[in-house]
From TrEMBL:
Keywords: Iron, Iron-sulfur, Metal-binding. PROSITE patterns: 4FE4S_FER_1 (PS00198), 4FE4S_FER_2 (PS51379). Pfam families: Fer4, FrhB_FdhB_C, FrhB_FdhB_N. InterPro entries: 4Fe4S_Fe-S-bd (IPR017896), 4Fe4S_Fe_S_CS (IPR017900), Co_F420_Hydgase/DH_bsu_N (IPR007516), FRHB/FDHB/HCAR-like (IPR045220), FrhB_FdhB_C (IPR007525). Residues 6-35 form the 4Fe-4S ferredoxin-type domain. This is F420H2 dehydrogenase subunit F. One of its GO terms (molecular function) is iron-sulfur cluster binding. Coiled coil: none annotated. It comes from the Bacteria.
């Protein structure tokens, strides 16, 4: 058997579980399902074609000469370029004026608004995005949406693994115009898929990207739910973005419903550090990713993590626009329904500084100082143990907390020195 996606990606802990390899395989020898770590992982049966390498050509973590910047340059060359966010036409701040609409959305409601506009203006026939699945074994999955009303079912955040294999199969079997939502690595996989399949290239008209600092395994939600319910429980649904009045935009909660109809809320007072900052239940593939802003997408959406915006618990969106159609939509919003204005791209970058620092510390590990290397090493240990046996090492968590406090103190000193001694804008 010749080396393929299993040997060169999966066994090297570089697979993110996007499912593109499964859909592109011409002899259907690949399938995908959850592995023991709660992540999607392809499996192979015999029959792989000796001279075929399509599975590797569409993998976002194998093609070493297909970095996001190279792919995005092919797509958007001629636009303005900026470090981190890539090519762009304009950057925007966005917020729906209807509070109830915002409270159902991940941030300011930009994704819901744009997807509906694509249908309304007849730019696409169907929307491909993620919605709750109602299955304790698979809480979320990609679905097909044909009407604006249906799109409301897909609102909110999803910190849960999904695979694109079924939805890409659907695209190949149905000759229609599509828009699809995607995390950065998924957006890259779709672009590689389009380069190797003319049907996908012609039918997928828009990729709506989502900023991402790290993905999570299915055990991330399960572990927090078990702690919240104070016993092992089967989850029927989860709202990963329950917004709490009188708190900041950061202060959202997770709301779980079990199969018996019981509801419990995690206010993330402890779990935010224990299960997010610590890197627990984060796929190893995320350690090899540097694309936060979905550089291959036509538009990228994110939370406005800026001091003046996080005070509003209902949330605000920021957008990076790389496609003229999205730019025209945002220039012509109904001002009675939406607040939308251009924003300095530097502020867009600033809003995600935390994710940028986190990505850099893993991707450019060799260039980090001693303190940062210690932090990364502890996080990798926590990451490895959580994926292997779903356990948390409390001793390592305490060590991590101590090192992060030292880092925060050091960063504060540097900040104050630059601001007050060097008189630099920071």
């Amino acid at each position: 058997m010749k080396p393929n996606i299993i040997e060169l990606v999966v066994k090297e802990n570089r697979c993110i579980g996007c499912g593109a390899c499964v859909s592109i395989c011409p002899v259907n020898v690949l399938s995908i399902d959850f592995n023991s770590g709660g992540l999607y992982e392809p499996k192979e049966i015999s029959g792989c074609l000796k001279k075929c390498s399509l599975c590797l050509k569409v993998c976002p973590f194998y093609e070493k000469d297909q970095y996001e910047d190279i792919l995005s340059k092919e797509l958007f060359y001629g636009l303005e370029y900026k470090q981190h966010i890539g090519y762009f036409i304009n950057t925007y701040e966005f917020s729906k004026l209807n509070l109830n609409e915002k409270l159902c959305s991940a941030s300011g409601g930009a994704g819901n608004y744009l997807l509906k506009k694509l249908l309304e203006l007849n730019f696409v026939d169907e929307i491909l995005t993620v919605k709750p699945n109602g299955d304790p074994n698979k809480l979320f999955k990609f679905n097909v949406f044909k009407t604006k009303d249906e799109i409301d079912e897909s609102r909110g955040s999803v910190y849960y693994p999904v695979s694109m294999d079924e939805i890409l199969d659907y695209v190949l079997k149905n000759d229609k115009r599509y828009a699809i939502t995607a995390l950065p690595c998924f957006a890259k996989a779709i672009r590689l898929f389009q380069k190797n399949n003319h049907k996908a290239k012609n039918r997928i008209k828009f990729i709506v990207g989502l900023v991402c600092g790290q993905m999570k395994s299915k055990d991330f939600a399960q572990q927090i739910a078990d702690e919240t319910f104070k016993n092992k429980t089967l989850i029927k649904s989860v709202n990963f973005r329950k917004k709490i009045p009188h708190k900041t935009a950061y202060g959202f909660a997770f709301e779980f419903e079990n199969i018996n109809g019981g509801v419990s809320i995690d206010y993330r007072n402890k779990s935010a550090f224990k299960y997010w900052t610590s890197r627990a239940f984060t796929p190893f593939a995320c350690n090899n990713c540097i694309d936060i802003f979905a550089k291959c997408a036509d538009v990228t959406l994110m939370d406005a993590w800026l001091d003046e915006k996080i005070k509003d618990y209902s949330g605000h969106s920021l957008l990076i626009v790389r496609n003229k159609i999205f730019d025209e939509i945002l220039k012509n919003v109904n001002k009675n329904e939406v607040f939308c204005k251009k924003i300095d791209p530097d502020l867009v970058v600033k809003s995600q500084n935390g994710a940028i620092d986190e990505k850099n510390s893993f991707y450019f590990y060799d260039k980090q100082n001693i303190l940062n290397k210690k932090i990364v090493k502890i996080k990798k240990d926590i990451q490895k143990q959580s994926l292997k046996d779903k356990k948390m090492d409390e001793v390592k968590l305490k060590k991590l907390k101590k090192q992060l406090k030292l880092k925060a103190r050091k960063d504060t000193i540097i900040y104050l020195f630059k601001k007050h001694i060097l008189r630099k804008t920071v």
